Amino acid sequence: MIKLYGSTTSPFVRRLRMWMANVEHEFINLEIFAGKDRVTLAERNPTLKIPMIEDDANVIFDSRVIYRYLTEKFDYPVPSWEQENQLTLIDAATDSLVQMLLLGRSEIDTSEDKMYFKLQRERVESTLSHLNDLVSQGTFEDWNYPSICLFSLIDWIEFRTLHDLNNMADLRAFRDNNSQRIEATATDPRKA
Predict the structure, then answer these.
(1) How many Å is the maximal CA-CA distance in the chain?
(2) What was the pLDDT predicted at 137?
(3) Torsion-angle region of residue 56: left (phi > 0), alpha (psi -120 to 50) or beta?
(4) What is the pLDDT at residue 45?
(5) pLDDT of the residue at 78
């Protein structure tokens, strides 16, 4: 059986949990920053990051690589290049927000006028604005992996209060319109 390692609050893990709703697997919830779970993670994944999966003798790191691996394993449709670009946009915003969250938890003031912080804020704003436009154009109408990833990102932003989405009505509506899906409610980090 496939084992998915992660945490209930990670947007990268949540997207896989939602996408794998109909795939038999075991979810192993880890506290990745301390204790025995940190040791478990280090023993299996030298990057010390989640998500990762174990499938027989294969250990696969990174949500995008896991998605590709499972797509091939189960002979699911391969994403188009347009969808790959959508995933890159979603990942860029998520990566920047994860970095800013970790810096904030490390008691570093990310509101300072420093190049690194400005670049992250600029990337997030630009990417989310573009994703908002794509939603308004109907790009994410089908419930597929890119849509799941976008939902996970937007819901995580709201869960962690990471970015003001008041000027991005289409992203907020997209999240609201999909928030009652069974895979969304079953993986809601607020209920963990």
Answers:
(1) 48
(2) 98
(3) left
(4) 87
(5) 95
| Sheet containing 25-29, strands listed edge to edge, beginning at the edge strand earlier in sequence | 25-29, 2-6, 52-55, 58-61
Residues (pLDDT < 50) of the chain are: none
How many angstroms separate the Cα of 123 from the Cα of each of 17, 61, 96, 120?
26, 24, 7, 5
Q: Two tokens at 32?
A: 């990745």
Q: Considering the entire predicted model, what is its pTM?
A: 0.95
Q: Is-contact 58 44, C-beta < 8 A?
A: no
